[in-house]
Structure formats: C-alpha cells, structure tokens
Amino acid sequence: MNATPHVPPYAPGRVPLIGHAVPLLRNRLAFLQSLRKHGPIVRISVGPKAVTVINSPNLLQEMLTTQSKHFSKGLLFEKLKLFGKDALPVAEGSRHLTRRRLMQPAFHHRQIDTYIRTMYTTVDPMIAAWQGMGPLDMKTEMQLITQNVVMAALFSTTPNRDTGHAILKSVDTLFAAALRRALLPLPLLERLPTPGNRRTRRAGCVMRTAVSEVIADHLAHPDAYDDVVSLLLNTRDPDGTPLADEDILSEVTGLLAAGSETTAVTLTWLFHELARHPELERQLHSEVDTVLTSEPVTAQTLTQLTFTRRLVNESLRMYSPAWLVTRQATEPVRLGGTDLRVGEDIVWSPYTLHRDPALYPDPLRFDPDRWLPERPQPPKGAFIPFGAGKRQCMGNEFALAEATLITALIASRWRLRPVPGPAVRPVGAITLHPSTLHMSAQARTPVGHHREAV
Q1: Which domains does the chain have, with CATH numbers?
Q2: Could you write out the DSSP letters of every residue in 43-91?
Q3: Any transmembrane segments, and where (predicted)?
C-alpha cells in the first residue's frame, strides 16, 4: 500500500489573487533563496497559478534523470520558442532526440578541439581593439565576443561590430519578452499590438534576417563550408526529404541565442570578482604568463590552465547564468513522496542550489580553490550549471573551453578595473547578469605579445 503522499506547504506571504507576486517582483533571487528553509519541496503561487519549487539536489537529480520521461521543459522554454518553434533547446519528445543526435557530432570533444583556433582568431583582435577605448560595458563586450565565437565556429561567419550589436540587441529583446511572458502568462496580451509586442516582433525580424543571410551564403557556396549550417542543409529524413527551411532557420537561431548569452554573463561575473580579489587576479596572471608562451594555442594548452578553469567553475557556481529553470509534469508522477498532477508547473534555481550552505561551505565566498581535487566536492546533482540527464546542455564542453580561453586571453593582455558607479547587484532576468558593470582596460604587456593558435 502506498504511503500517504506529502502535500508541500505554500510559502508564507501568499496574498489572495496575486499570490507571491510582490516578493517575486521586489527581489526574486532573495525570495527563491528564502524558500529553502521551508523544505525540499514548497509551493508558491504566481497570481492564481500554483508553482512547485524544488530545493533538493537529490530530487532534482531524480526528476532530471530517472523520472525525466514524465516531464516537459515547461513554461519558460515554451516562451523561448520566440527564437525558433522547434529548435533543439526547446524541442520535446522524439523530435528533441532526433535533433540532439543530429547535432551531437558538432559538440563532441574531439570536434571542440578543432574550434580552438577559430576561438583564438576571433577573440584576439576583438580584445586588442580595447586599446584606447573608454570604459567598457562588460556585459555587452562579453556578449559580442561570445556571439562572434559561436558564429565563427559553428556558422563560419563573423559579423562586424554594428551588425553584431543589432543581433545582440534583438537577442536581449527576445529573451526579455520570453521571461516576461513566462512570469505573466496571459496569451491574449501577447497578441495585442502593444509597444513591447511590436519591439519583440521587430527583434524577431532582425534575428531571422541575420540568420537567413548566413544560410543563403551557404546555399550559394555549398563547397566553401563545413560547419553546423552545412550539416543542417545536407541532412535528409529517412525518406530522403531535406529539412524544411523553417527548421533550419530555427536551429541556427536557437544555437546563436543559447550559445552566447550564458557564457557572456559568466565571464562578466568572473572579471567582476577578479577586480574584487587582487590575489586571485595575480594568480591568474601568473598562470597565463607561464602557459601562454610563444607556442601555438591548442586544446592541450587549455588543460594546463587549471586555475583559469577553476575560476570559470566558481563563477558558474556563484552566478549560475540559467538561474531559473522550469519543467511541467506530463503525467501523474510521485517525486520525493509528493504526488504531482498532470500539468503541474515546477521550477528550481541553480543559483539558490549552488549557494546552499549545506552543500557548499561558506557559499557566498568566491573561492576557486574549492574545486581543487583534494578538497571535498559537492554531492552529485548539487552542481548543475548546464542541467543534467537527457536535457543537459549539449554545448557544455564548448562553453567551458570558450570561457577558459577568453579568460586567459584577456588576462594575458589586460588588467580590468571597475569604473566608479552604482553598486553591482545580480539581476534575475533570462540570465543572471550584473545590474551594471563598466571597467577600464589597462594594458599588461605590449600589444601583440601573444602566442598563435594552430
């Protein structure tokens, strides 16, 4: 006989009609942090809608692995279809499995090794251009860099700075619209000609135009490319039918959006923390000055950047870019003694999970040495910046290699110093980004004193 299911409590502070809207709007990150003390599973309400929040790494691991077939990606990912209706990041079921298998070779670790030269030749001139520039908007600069890396490595194209800014602005607009629509799911409002909806449509047009131009160039010069766009254009269904134009457009757009934003904000936080911890900056400079000599940069080079990689991991822990993740139960399922109904909306926050003092000693301290192999490591399921299970981000190794290389290249050339201004605080938008962060680049070595890439 089944045990009586546990009914998770509602978090305190629920108000009739609006639920927990006030603390969510006032400080959603602090509110989600506060939910941990109410147990491994707790409910909140967003207006009339009940949402189940999971705080336990064990339950998250169960939901994302052994019980994953009972869940879809949920409301936030549904709204992210603004980037592409059935692109891999938002696809479900058999379509997701088919597309994942199709794209997997492009993100195999052996293939990522071949991207190192492209990453280097893309990043190096962009950061060299900081010479003589005024204060840098770090989030924008990191987004432009990572966006160009994705486009160069996966699409064999690099936009100029003005075009890159236009694409970047459209990505930000679409992400903001997706989060707004997920937090206030009123489909009727999404169809009205409001200023926000008009901005969203214009942003969508900019993205489609930019991606369509990339695809058109590949079609016009089919023998000139061997990349992800070529892979999609040459793919055939079992009956010999090529992928539909809209499917190719969606996949390329989805990759462009997903592949740049999260790495960019991770790097932004990393350099913010380095500026606050001069001893860590000195350690980074010592490592890159030793490793980045006159020899070509290779995948083997990245394995020697052990402290740099720990900085990346610690930035991912403290400032998990995908700070809020959703799922939805597609059939009745029991999770941790709690019965979840069909259609139940579920959320969890890697940001709050990674700051749980029961999992991470002194969790608010930026400590890259917590990732030293001789130090106790968090339990399985407690560090999931890229998710887990069959929906784990396929580009995780690409992102880690990219972030490690960009950090090292910047540190080999510049010291980044904060510009006086408002206090930096985390903002929980579609990613977790700093409220504002402007820094000046101070040269460390003569421009051009770098090793080459192979």
Answers
A1: 97-326+346-443 (1.10.630.10)
A2: EEEETTEEEEEE--HHHHHHHHTTTGGGEE--HHHHHGGGS-TT-TTT-
A3: none
Cα distance between residue 64 and residue 80, in whole Å: 20
pLDDT tens per residue, range 254-283: 888 777 789 999 999 999 999 999 999 999
Q: How far is CA 181 from CA 102, 167, 184, 196, in A?
A: 30, 21, 5, 11
Nearest CA to 55 among 4, 7, 8?
8
* Ramachandran bin of 345, using left for φ above 0, alpha for ψ from -120 to 50, beta for the remaining angles: beta
Q: What's the average model confidence in pLDDT over 370-399?
A: 91
In whole angstroms, give the CA distance from residue 393 to residue 399.
10
* Mean pLDDT (whole number) for 85-99: 71
Listed in sequence order, the residues at least 6 apart from 252 whose beta carbon sits closer than 8 Å to its beta carbon are 155, 211, 214, 215, 228, 229, 232
Task: Give pLDDT tens digits for 306-335.
Answer: 999 999 999 999 999 999 998 999 999 999
Which residues make Cβ contacts (< 8 Å) with residue 261, sequence separation at least 6?
Answer: 143, 146, 171, 175, 321, 430, 431
Identify whether the C-beta of residue 41 lies closer than 8 Å to the C-beta of residue 10. Answer: no
Q: Which residues contact 407 (CB under 8 A, 6 or more apart)?
A: 267, 270, 284, 308, 311, 312
Least confident of 250-259, 344-353, 375-384: 250-259
**Residue 89, pLDDT above cutoff 60:** yes
**pTM here?**
0.90
Statement: residue 419 has pLDDT above 70: yes
Mean pLDDT over 428-444 rounds to 93
How high is the mean pLDDT of the chain? 88
Helix (H, G, I), strand (E, B) or coil at 301: helix
| pLDDT of 432 higher than 70 | yes
If you write DSSP's letter for every residue of 233-255 in order, what string do you get? HH-B-TTSPBPPHHHHHHHHHHH
**CB neighbours of 35 closer than 8 A, spacing ≥ 6?**
11, 42, 44, 53, 55, 352
Q: Which residues contact residue 236 at a Cβ distance below 8 angstroms, ignoring those fewer than 6 apart?
A: 242
Q: Is residue 327 a contact partner of residue 8, using CB atoms and an 8 Å limit?
A: no
Tell me if 42 sits within 8 A of 9, measured CB to CB: yes
Task: State the Cα–Cα distance between residues 322 and 348, nearest whole angstrom.
Answer: 10
Give the number of other CB atoms < 10 A from CB of residue 384. Answer: 24
